[in-house]
Amino acid sequence: MPMYDYSCGGCGDFAALQPLAQWRDPVACPQCGALSGRIIGGAPAISALSSAVNRARAVNERSANEPRSSRSGHGMNCGCCAGGQTRGKTRTSTDGAKSFAGARPWMISH
Q1: Domain Putative regulatory protein FmdB zinc ribbon, which positions (predicted)?
Q2: CA atoms of 110 and 108, how far apart (whole Å)
């Protein structure tokens, strides 16, 4: 239920929980019991949200200023986290000639 602001002529301003369907209806003042009309003091405050909604709202507020990646590590094909250097297909002989292990020599790679 949202909390709305009301004004009593004798006691002053107060806030009360009121169902959304009854937002226009006057509410009894908690001190004197007189019916008091609603004033526009601020936006209605939603006080009874579930904990899941509150957690989701907190995460969204945090991520607006502090975005973080959902992936762990540095990403795909990271050389520093791979656990070891894997050898490529290029082989260099002692005279400087290059060959490609397991590749067909007549194919042009792209």
Answers
A1: 1-41
A2: 7
